[in-house]
C-alpha cells in the first residue's frame, strides 16, 4: 500500500532562521538552534493522521566548509529528540555540484518516495523558499509555502500559502478530511 508524506524543509519550517540583510541562514550551533512555536505538536498531528514526516534540507555549508556533516547530524539528532520525525534527508552540495538532490531538483523527495513507498500525488511539502516549492512541483506533490518575505525570488504558482507549520498542517488536515 502506498503511503502519504509531508516533506518538511528544516530551516524556517522546523527551526528559526538567522536573517542577515533579508536572507535566511541556518543555525550553525546548538546555541542558535531554536524550534519554531507549534512544530512538535504539528508533527505529532501529522503522524496521528497517518502521514510520514520527512525532512528534506539543503545544507550547502557542508560543501562550503562552514560546517561538517557530523555537526549537521548532531543538530538533526537534537531536533529528533524534540520532534517526531520519520526521516531526515540532506543535500550537502553547493549550487554548482551537479547533484540531483539539491532543491529545486526533486531528488531527495524521489529517493524518499522509493524507499518509503510514498504516493507523491497524495503528499505535501512545506517550505519557506522558492526552491522548496519548485522541488515539490517537480516531484508531483502539493507545495505549501511559508512566506516570510525573504529578499529572494518568490516561488511560481501553484502553491498554497500558510503563516507557519501549524497553519500548514491545519490546512493539510482539512484538505485530507474534505477528500476522505
Spell out the key features of this protein.
180 residues, Rossmann fold, globular, two-stranded antiparallel ribbon, alpha/beta, 20% strand
Write up what this structure looks like.
The protein is of the alpha/beta class and 180 residues long. Helix content is 32%, strand content 20%. The chain is built from five helices and eight strands, in the order E-E-E-H-E-H-E-H-E-H-E-E-H. Strands 5-4-1-6-7-8 form a six-stranded parallel β-sheet, with helices on both faces. Helix 1 packs parallel to helix 5. The model has no long low-confidence stretch (mean pLDDT 95).
Quick summary of this structure?
32% of the residues lie in helices and 20% in strands. It contains five helices and eight strands, in the order βββαβαβαβαββα.
- Molecular shape: globular
What gyration radius follows from the Cα positions, in whole Å?
A: 15 Å
* CATH superfamily membership: HAD superfamily/HAD-like
What is the highest CATH level, the class? Alpha Beta
Q: How much of the polypeptide forms β-strand, as a percent range?
A: 15-25%
Specify the CATH architecture. 3-Layer(aba) Sandwich
Q: Can you count the beta strands?
A: 8
Count of all domains: 1
Q: Which fold name is given in CATH as the topology?
A: Rossmann fold
Number of helices: 5
Low-confidence stretches: none
What's the arrangement of secondary structure elements?
Elements: E1 4-8, E2 18-20, E3 23-25, H1 39-48, E4 51-58, H2 69-82, E5 87-91, H3 107-116, E6 124-127, H4 130-139, E7 142-146, E8 160-162, H5 165-178
Parallel strand pairs: 1-4, 1-6, 4-5, 6-7, 7-8
Antiparallel strand pairs: 2-3
Helix pairs in contact: 1-5
